[in-house]
Amino acid sequence: MKKTLSTIWPIILILFVWLVFSSPYLIKGKVPFPSDYLNANFGPWSTYNSVAVVKNGATPDVISQIYPWKKMVIDIWRTGNFPLWNPYNFSGSPLLANYQSAALSPINLIYFIVPLVNAWTFQIILAPLLAGIFMYLFVRSLKVSEFGSLISALAFMFCGFITTWLVYGTLSYAILFLPLSLFAIEKYIDTKKWLYLFILSVSIPLSFFSGHFQTSIYFFLFLVSYLIYKSIVSRKTIMPLYLSTISGLLLSSPQLLPSIEFYFESVRSAIFIKTEVIPWSYLPTLIAPDFFGNPVTRNDWFGHYAEWNMYIGFVPLFLAIYSFSKKNRDVIFFGVASLIVLLLSFQTPLLDILIALKIPVLSTSAASRIVVLFSFCFSVLAGFGLDRVIKDISGKRIKKIFPLLILFFLIFAGLWLVVLTRSILPIDKVSIAFSNLRLPTIIFVITVITISLLFILKDKKLKFLILSALILITALDLLRFSTKWQPVGDKNQMYNDVPITSFLKGINPQDRVFGAINQEGAMYYDFSIPEGYDPLYIGRYGELIGAARDGNYHTPERSVVNLSKNGEYTGQIINLLGVKYIIHKVSDGQAVWAFPYWTYPVDTFRQVYEDDKYIVLANDKTFPRAFTVNNVVIEGNKRNILKDLFKKDLNLRQTAVVEEDINISNGDSSASATITSYTPNKIVVDVEAKKKSLLVLSDPYYPGWKAVVNGKPSKIYRTDYALRGVIIPEGKSSIAFTYDPESFKIGLAIGFIGLILTFANCLIYSRKK
Questions:
Q1: Fewer Cβ close by (within 10 Å): the C or N end of the chain?
Q2: CA 760 to CA 244: how far, in whole Å?
Q3: Which uninterrupted H or E stretch holds 244?
Q4: Which of 370, 213, 225 is nearest to 307 (CA)?
């Protein structure tokens, strides 16, 4: 029993620190979700609720994207279907392929065991625990002591990247499997056990299924780099590790292939600009994370706190730098890797080269997020650093630590000089820096005293207590840092019912809504809107919506589609897209940001709902969501299509613009089209036509949608620039649109091959043993 405790006590301590961090959620029943922010700033909830104080207003995507996507994914899984398509944003958009929905993440299984809110809580708070345990196992496999490995674990599980992105439930999971994969590499080299080949293979899709492609790319690149490094320094055969890495990548194909397809259909694939580059002047936050303020305390004034956060705790930072005095190949590897990462996250020529190379994802995303690898490397080095301190204490080499102590003394002295002389910082910001530099200085002083005692004391028991104190300092520092940021919400205030929700819940999923409502409301209450916010969206659709301003082509925005409320052709667009309801906030009056329904003919809109906050208008001029036309204009040039669409004499209810000859004779023909089934991945339309016609469905055209007319496959034509059109014969017809992307099916096939390779690799090796 004593032997077991002496082995697992660090894991128990990690669990204890995690329980302290998680206590508001596990004991008090709170939820890691910014429900106060939701009710203060997001309609319709903010319109009815009065919230005076919001703890953290820097996590909007959790409200508008991540949580609603999670709900949608689970709802679709419950129907027995793959969550492939989101019918509610951008008039319809890929769901699984947008990546951040994390549709294939195994963590989704929790949502089938406990209620949605409880599952969300467990998913979020589990991440730092897994990160800590995996890091501990990895650093121990590098022959670092239990104390050193524990320091590394604490530093990583509450590092700036994991802390600030924790409530997203995606980025943290995408990186936390990195130490597990490296642990598998180390253990396989040492033991040659097939189990570690399996762990390595599985860790890769676990990262790629987690919901953040950019972070998983960093994970994979670092994994491959480490594997190459080990193949160079190790004299043992590691070919099975390469096979495991390949099989892991193949296992990730069901997510990767649809996402790659979506990426190249999106606007993001053509945008290569530097964003979120960390300035060198932000380096003080390595030792004082709130030196430039914190969004939680509403006093941040410089930088992007979440994107640029590099903090791993002062003690781990100090120890990581001290580890450089040790001549060790692993220290050199992680030290060089951390330097390269800094050069890629700060403004340097190396970053300029990366952008110039126009590498998909790496050259189009926020540059600063690669800093997570710096935090990872320095967390590992912290363990080596503590062991170096212990070794130098045993060898009475006290002089070796003096240069580092002097270096940090000079850094703190310099920062205090800047603060006290008010020579560099804005005068009105000095008090912020002053307040937030005090605690790091105290931690520095305590660290110096603690390490000095280690060198002075001779009693081993006392030294053990001092080492424990160093762990305690680290834990308290990081718990303060991480808990300060995390939202502690009331689960009863998450998307709670307000008066208008009774109307919203009754909207048919196929009906579109426009006005004072955003995607969080659309996704949560299952109705469609023409707008949306997502790093990936269908580029052609965004161009169509942008043209509503003046009928001309406009370069779409990087991550958002907004339909101009006052555009010259907004009325035509909302009719073409089948927008049935207009939601207007009473307090907006006739403000310029509101949709000016009062400027339209009086027979266009009629009121169908009213309370003291909102009115809802039905659009009586809107087109059916599916309708037929017999007049077509053929135009292959993108710019000219937009010009044709917005010609004043063109009635889009009777005429469609297509990009190729579809062999339909122009003329009048009465026909009826009725949507009989509308689900995320399948739409069924019944049509009765007097002649061969073109059925227009006002959902976005996208590869993977297939049409079957009366049981026979039929081509879908890109119609009206970004919508779908199918030729239907004379008479009664049933048309089924099914989202069945080849990219996903091929991904599943490749994933199956990866599964076979994984087991074959493990089986072959186990027989060799």
A1: N
A2: 10
A3: helix 239-251
A4: 370
In a 3-state reduction of DSSP, which class is residue 451?
helix
Give yes or no for a contact between 194 and 184, defined as CB atoms under 8 angstroms apart.
no
Q: Is residue 95 a contact partner of residue 101, using CB atoms and an 8 Å limit? A: yes
Quote the tokens at residue 350: 């190396």
Residue 386 exposed, middle or buried by CB count within 10 Å (0-12, 13-18, 19+): buried
- Phi/psi of residue 85, each to 5°? -130, 140
Work out the angle at residue 761's Cα, subtended by the Cα atoms of residues 759 and 764, and round it to the nearest 5 degrees: 100
384: exposed, middle or buried (Cβ count in 10 Å: 0-12, 13-18, 19+): buried
Looking at residue 221, its pLDDT comes to 96
3-class state of residue 588 by DSSP: helix
pLDDT along the chain (769 residues), means of 10: 69 96 94 94 91 86 96 96 96 96 96 96 97 98 95 97 96 97 96 94 98 95 96 83 96 97 86 76 94 92 91 96 87 95 86 71 74 97 93 74 90 94 89 94 92 74 81 95 95 93 93 94 94 93 94 90 94 96 96 94 95 96 94 89 87 92 76 93 94 94 96 96 95 96 97 96 76
Q: How far apart are CA 387 and CA 454, in angstroms?
A: 13
Q: E-strand spans in 220-277?
A: none
Question: How many CA atoms, within 13 angstroms, populate the side-chain half-sphere of residue 453?
Answer: 18
Tell me, what DSSP letter sits at residue 323? Answer: G
On whether the CB atoms of residues 608 and 618 are closer than 8 A, the answer is yes
Q: pTM of the prediction?
A: 0.93
* φ/ψ (deg, to 5) at 499: -50, -45
Kindly state the greatest CA–CA separation across the chain. Answer: 100
SS3 224: helix
Give the pairing of strands 512-515 and 579-585: parallel
DSSP label at residue 398: G
pLDDT given at position 671: 82
Query: Cα(691)–Cα(345) distance, rounded to whole angstroms?
Result: 61
Half-sphere exposure of 474 (CA within 13 A, CB side): 33
| DSSP sequence for 731-752 | EEEEEEEEE--HHHHHHHHHHH
Nearest 5°: phi and psi at 588?
-75, -25
Calpha distance 570→549 (Å, rounded): 7
Q: Decide: 18 and 129 in contact? Cβ < 8 Å.
A: yes
Calpha distance 681→740 (Å, rounded):
8
Cα dihedral value 246, 251, 254, 260, nearest 10: -20
Query: How many Å apart are CA 38 and CA 178, to the nearest integer?
Result: 33
Calculate Rg over the CA atoms of the chain: 29
Quick one: angle between helices 314-322 and 402-421, nearest 10? 130
Bridge partners, 561 (sequence order): 532
CA distance 100 to 87: 16
Closest CA to 682 of 735, 727, 724: 735
Say which residue the tokens 């003080």 belong to.
284
Is cis: bond before 44, omega within 30 of 0? yes
C-beta separation of 676 from 723 below 8 A: no
> Which residue shows structure tokens 């048919």?
508
Question: What is d(CA 459, CA 456) in angstroms, rounded to the nearest whole number?
Answer: 9
Question: Using DSSP, how many helices (H) and how many strands (E) does the chain show?
Answer: 28, 19
Residue 695 near residue 735 (C-beta atoms within 8 A): yes
Residue 508 CB: number of other CB atoms within 10 A?
A: 13
Please give the Cα distance from 689 to 668 (Å, whole number): 11
Q: Are 477 and 314 in contact (CB under 8 A)?
A: yes
How does 642-655 read in b/e, with b if 16+ C-beta sit within 10 Å? bebbbeeebebeeb
Q: What is the mean pLDDT of the chain?
A: 92
